[in-house]
Inverse folding.
């Protein structure tokens, strides 16, 4: 019998079960960031805004505005401030309304040297 | 309904959304998809192509790709709506029979990469009325699947309830 | 009845003589009109004569005095009936066509004079009753056709085409003279009826020689391969109605000659005669259509298609002779009927197509298929008429081409009834070749109709074609004739059966048409179909979709966006198929036959897309000219060169010749 057929029978069905259940490895796909708002400071946020190559991040007063539509999942913001920013692992981002993709995170962190910085 | 009436933000928009959603639900288990490329880098197309591969298997959901817009229920549009592709995009939209659904795929199509200038519109929803936006660069096939299922109402969209603030999740802030 | 037939024949001949005289006055519009009216009346007389002759089954004989070689006898035999009817129909159609096609001019006057005399000469060939009358009429007809081709003698290709026509016609004529000479000498009479009666006493070898010479000689006129090279050279360069006359009638005279020898003068020949004839026919059919498929010039294409159809007719004749030789007289007579029926059919639709080619050329200024397009909108009525002719020649039901080709296949497929297996297989192989021809013919005519008429115009000339002032009545008459010959096939076949009965002595009326207007191929247990009922069924079937549409139309109004074209900006004429590309699959498949020389040149060495224009030249190797005719011509020239020293130009040498001859004469006389 063909080797692939035998191997397939041994390994079982290879198709994903989505939407019934989400594959565990989907967490590791490139994904938009999530933030620890208490660790964000104005200075840090300004550095994050400058670092985002897709211009997905911007700052409005004391809020970080993240446009998920522009985010490419490159991870530079998480690299820059790994304590404050982490990849979300979230891929189910479809939106019926463009405005739903624009998220606001309040900047609650105090301006202190050394915390939240690389 | 004329295209400008269905632009996001217009008066009739909130009325038509519910109607469109109900109509889109009727596609539930049998949907024909036509992809339109308005100047993308073709990576989104690679991910779209993977949907028919055995691992993601679009066909088990009852969704199929079709080359002719005449047979399509849904247009999967990639690319930043380059002005040179206006003719193509509008002709394809026109040729697709109603009721139809438009999904904009990728950061380019959502306005994230190119700003509007004399070569490019910047985002698809400046040209066509878009029903579902799928972000990503490129969106993985799983994200595309979720986008398709949201478009036909088999899944609820989750991103509205998503909060990017890890420290105050429980408060339910957007 | 016989008197009526004779009277009509004389009336036709007289009208054409009068029309020739009136043609001299065709330098004015009134003179042109008079000439064509009289010519048309003559045609009507001829058609009636032919039909009556076919129905009646026997014709009169007229003797016109005794001259140095026995005078001229005219015997209107039943075998000539379909040809006379065809001659008349073609004459009427061309008469209706002429006034709008030709402009009054001295050239036109000369042309019409010659054309009407050619009609007269063709009639004379068909009703000739003795050898002398036949040969004189034949040669006259050939010369007059040569003059007809030279109408526009200053244009390129005309002189060459006319020369090929007359040269090969003369070679054929020599063979015909020899054939008749053999028969006349061995039967001791110049009268065709007497020859037919006495021919069976002639030695088999001489009969075979006479038949082979006749087959080759008349093959030159009919356009059988390999005697065909004059056809694609001569037919396109004649004026449109001249080409129609040549293709519609003159090549049928070659067929008439073969039928005359095969069925009247030398009936009951051995089977190999029929097999050789069938072989020529099948090869002509396949090669004709293969060369037709790659032609860009519309009239050259039609000329090659004529070769193909002549091949089909001659295949039917040959197969008929073979079946008769093996005792299957019914099928033999059936195939003779098929040959005559296809002759009439092809004469009708080929004339129609050549006249329409003339209209297209007149309206758009070009014959090149790659420069035409979209004519269905510019010339709507011409398009409809041409469609009928194309459907007929492509042998699609329910028109006449389909009926005659169906009958031919049914006749050929009965090869299993022959006792010799080899011959049976050869007949089936011929059937297979004709089937190949049929398939290629559909391809060829889809191209020949689709490229000029459908799509977008490929040049400014085609875009500006106008239908006003184009001749319509003549082609429309022929289109109606095609429809009648197809749907009314049982009627036509009954008449042809009388002809076959008079010629071959067999009446297969009961095995040809059975009740309910069904045609059967000479045996009740083989197959059958009714062209009349088929046509009625097809009409009825169009009603059903209309009813379904009316009942099932969606009630809501639907949106009508433009046709999905892939999103292109603009349709350009250059995006379409051209005639050259349409024929590409055939060109590639049959490359060993075409042996093309292909040249591709780029304007510069830049990569494709930016290199500027690319020139692609595809030229078919003319294998017959190169490998058959050129060696023969070179041989003749070599022999002539060898004989040249005799004519040195030296008077003393000539006086020496005289002296030698005188000495020899004295010596012979003394002894």
């Amino acid at each position: 019998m063909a080797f692939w057929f035998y191997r397939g029978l041994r390994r079982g069905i290879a198709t994903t079960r989505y939407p019934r259940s989400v594959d565990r490895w989907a967490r590791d796909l490139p994904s938009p960031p999530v933030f620890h708002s208490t660790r964000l400071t104005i200075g840090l946020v300004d550095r994050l805004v400058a670092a985002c190559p897709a211009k997905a991040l911007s700052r409005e007063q004391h809020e970080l505005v993240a446009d998920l539509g522009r985010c490419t999942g490159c991870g530079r913001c998480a690299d820059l401030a790994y304590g404050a920013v982490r990849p979300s692992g979230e891929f189910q981002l479809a939106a019926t309304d463009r405005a739903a993709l624009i998220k606001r995170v309040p900047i609650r962190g105090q301006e202190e040297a050394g915390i939240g910085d690389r | 309904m004329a295209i400008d009436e269905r632009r996001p933000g217009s008066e009739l928009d909130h009325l038509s959304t519910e109607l469109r959603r109900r109509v889109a639900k009727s596609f539930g288990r049998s949907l024909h998809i036509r992809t339109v490329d308005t100047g993308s880098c073709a990576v989104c197309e690679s991910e779209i192509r993977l949907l028919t591969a055995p691992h993601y298997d679009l066909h088990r959901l009852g969704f199929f790709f079709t080359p002719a817009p005449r047979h399509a229920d849904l247009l999967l549009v990639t690319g930043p709506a380059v002005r040179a592709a206006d003719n193509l995009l509008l002709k394809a939209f026109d040729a697709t029979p109603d009721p139809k659904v438009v999904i904009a795929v990728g950061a380019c199509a959502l306005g994230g990469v190119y700003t509007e200038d004399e070569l490019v519109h910047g985002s698809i929803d400046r040209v066509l009325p878009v029903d579902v936006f799928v972000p990503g660069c490129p969106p993985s096939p799983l994200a595309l699947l979720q986008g398709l299922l949201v478009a036909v109402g088999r899944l609820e969209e989750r991103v509205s309830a998503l909060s990017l603030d890890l420290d105050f999740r429980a408060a339910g802030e957007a | 009845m016989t008197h009526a037939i004779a009277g009509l024949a004389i009336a036709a001949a007289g009208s054409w003589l009068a029309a020739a005289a009136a043609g001299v006055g065709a330098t004015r519009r009134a003179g042109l009109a008079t000439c064509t009216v009289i010519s048309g009346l003559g045609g009507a007389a001829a058609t009636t004569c032919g039909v009556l002759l076919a129905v009646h089954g026997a014709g009169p004989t007229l003797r016109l005095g005794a001259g140095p070689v026995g005078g001229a006898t005219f015997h209107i035999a039943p075998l000539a009936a379909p040809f006379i009817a065809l001659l008349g129909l073609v004459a009427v159609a061309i008469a209706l066509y002429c006034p709008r096609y030709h402009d009054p001019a001295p050239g036109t006057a000369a042309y019409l004079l010659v054309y009407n005399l050619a009609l007269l000469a063709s009639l004379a060939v068909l009703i000739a009753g003795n050898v002398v009358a036949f040969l004189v009429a034949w040669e006259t007809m050939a010369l007059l056709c040569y003059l007809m081709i030279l109408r526009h003698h200053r244009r390129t290709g005309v002189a060459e085409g006319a020369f090929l026509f007359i040269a090969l016609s003369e070679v054929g004529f020599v063979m015909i003279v020899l054939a008749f000479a053999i028969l006349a000498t061995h039967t001791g009479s110049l009268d065709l009826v007497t020859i037919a009666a006495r021919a069976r006493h002639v030695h088999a070898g001489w009969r075979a020689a006479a038949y082979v010479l006749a087959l080759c000689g008349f093959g030159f006129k009919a356009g059988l391969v390999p005697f065909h090279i004059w056809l694609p050279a001569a037919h396109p360069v004649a004026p449109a109605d001249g080409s129609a006359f040549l293709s519609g009638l003159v090549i049928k005279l070659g067929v008439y000659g073969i039928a005359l020898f095969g069925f009247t003068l030398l009936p009951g020949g051995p089977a190999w005669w029929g097999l050789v004839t069938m072989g020529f026919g099948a090869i002509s059919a396949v090669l004709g259509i293969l060369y037709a498929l790659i032609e860009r010039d519309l009239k050259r294409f039609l000329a090659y298609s004529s070769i193909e159809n002549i091949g089909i007719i001659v295949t039917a004749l040959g197969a008929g002779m073979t079946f008769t030789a093996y005792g299957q007289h019914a099928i033999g007579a059936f195939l003779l009927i098929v040959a005559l029926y296809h002759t009439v059919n092809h004469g009708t639709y080929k004339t129609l197509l050549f006249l329409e080619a003339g209209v297209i050329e007149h309206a758009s200024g070009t014959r090149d298929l790659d420069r035409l397009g979209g004519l269905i909108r510019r010339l709507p009525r011409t398009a409809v008429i041409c469609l009928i002719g194309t459907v007929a020649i492509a042998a699609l039901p329910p028109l006449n081409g389909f009926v005659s080709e169906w009958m031919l296949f049914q006749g050929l497929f009965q090869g299993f009834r022959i006792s010799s297996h080899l011959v049976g297989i050869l007949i089936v192989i011929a059937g297979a070749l004709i089937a190949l021809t049929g398939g290629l013919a559909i391809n060829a005519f889809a191209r020949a109709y689709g490229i000029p008429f459908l799509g977008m115009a490929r040049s400014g000339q085609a875009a500006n074609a106008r239908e006003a002032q184009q001749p319509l009545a003549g082609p429309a008459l022929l289109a109606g004739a095609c429809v009648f010959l197809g749907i009314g096939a049982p009627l036509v076949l009954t008449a042809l059966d009388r002809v076959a009965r008079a010629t071959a002595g067999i009446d297969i009326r009961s095995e040809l048409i059975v009740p309910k207007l069904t045609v059967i191929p000479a045996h009740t247990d083989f197959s059958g179909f009714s062209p009349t009922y088929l046509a009625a069924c097809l009409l009825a079937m169009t009603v059903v979709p209309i009813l379904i549409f009316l009942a099932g139309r969606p009630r809501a109004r639907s949106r009508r966006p433009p046709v999905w074209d892939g999103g292109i900006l603009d349709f350009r004429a250059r995006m379409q198929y051209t005639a050259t590309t349409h024929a590409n699959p055939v060109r590639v498949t049959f490359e060993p036959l075409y042996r093309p020389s292909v040249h591709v040149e780029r304007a510069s060495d830049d990569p494709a897309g930016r290199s500027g224009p690319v020139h692609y030249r595809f030229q078919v190797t003319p294998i017959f000219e190169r490998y058959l005719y050129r060696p023969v011509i070179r041989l003749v020239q070599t022999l002539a060169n060898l004989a040249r020293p005799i004519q040195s130009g030296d008077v003393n040498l000539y006086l020496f010749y005289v002296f030698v001859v005188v000495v020899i004469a004295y010596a012979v006389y003394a002894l």
